[in-house]
Automatic annotation (TrEMBL):
The gene is Akap13_1. PANTHER family: A-KINASE ANCHOR PROTEIN 13, AGAP007712-PA. Gene3D superfamilies: Ankyrin repeat-containing domain. This is AKP13 protein. One of its GO terms (biological process) is adrenergic receptor signaling pathway. One of its GO terms (cellular component) is actin cytoskeleton. One of its GO terms (molecular function) is MAP-kinase scaffold activity.
Amino acid sequence: GDCVITVQLSEEDQVEDDVVFYLIFTGSTIQHCTSTRKINPGSLETIAPGHDCCETVKVALCASKEGHPALVVAEESFQFIEDEAYDAAQFLASCAGNQQALNFTRFLDRSRPPAADVEFLDEKVALAFRHLKLPPGWNVLGADQSLNENTPRETLMHFAVRLGLLRLTWFLLQQPGGRGALGIHNTEGATPVSLALERGYLKLHQLLTEEEAREPDCWSTLSHTVHAGDYCVKHHRGLDVYMLTAET
């Protein structure tokens, strides 16, 4: 989700300015409707929705004008694929509270991937995480609520901070248990906050310690989501387009 889709109109579809175009993606369990913006008379832009599973869906380009019925202009198939980022996000989501798995992720730290790879990992995995359908009651600290803050353990927050994943850290902070994870020591006595300072991740440390820390600039152009029952509405601030997602 959140990548740009360009729609090229044929000459007969290039119509007056008061016609509004939108795309409808119909999957097996959910449907997305996205508004578009016109780049020029022959081109539209919109944002790909984050889907709940990997499948081929039907996408319809529709045109609407006040006082007239909506028309389907064209139809095409669109494939949502399972990539490494999707797999990684699913693995990490299932690791919350699993000490054996979280200790295993520390092997990544020893290899110290290049900064460009870390940036790519951060962007793709955080985006995939945003679009995962997390189970009800999912918590950054895992399902075992009997553990208290004095119990030393690894958390997903330690993982994100150790690798310097700014976007993923921001996402986890917004989830249940995210703030609580900041004060938890691992078996070496490090909290996510002390790890950020030790590694010299100044932006990350600021994000974790400021009460009213702003959303990272690199993250702020993405979609802002509002949920309402079986529906959610996203506003993509970068392109100023909207997306309605509903369970079918």
